[in-house]
Design a protein that fits this description.
CATH architecture: Orthogonal Bundle
Number of strands: 0
Radius of gyration: 26 Å
Order of helices and strands: HHHHH
Length: 114
């Protein structure tokens, strides 16, 4: 078996790792071992937070819908229940956008379920 020296590839790997952690603080941006750890943790957080972002937006939509329903003296839960009872299939994102940007249309939807 011939001997393979990995100098070129090791340097290339190190350069790529350090390029990924540019802007990190302290040893995480300069030391290869700490940089590799930082990358793996960052990937884990990024994956988890992509999932969290969906929950965050759903909460935001609920708050916006609830705020728009205050002037109709309706609670969010009763509104959603009435939508389901009347077989009106609007998702929360659409309702939140209507409540914010087109209140007249949102008022018509509220009037339809009453």
């Amino acid at each position: 078996m011939t001997r393979v020296k990995k100098g070129v590839h090791a340097l290339k790997t190190r350069r790529n790792v350090l390029k990924q952690v540019k802007g990190y603080r302290f040893g995480r941006s300069t030391k290869e071992r700490q940089a590799i750890e930082a990358i793996s943790h960052a990937g884990t957080y990024a994956f988890a937070h992509r999932r969290d972002k969906k929950n965050d937006f759903r909460k935001l939509w609920n708050v916006r819908i609830s705020a728009a329903l205050k002037e109709h003296n309706l609670s969010y839960s009763k509104f959603i229940g009435a939508l389901k009872k009347n077989n009106l299939a609007y998702d929360r994102k659409t309702l939140a956008i209507l409540a914010q940007e087109s209140p007249a249309t949102f008022n018509r939807i509220v009037a339809k379920i009453s």
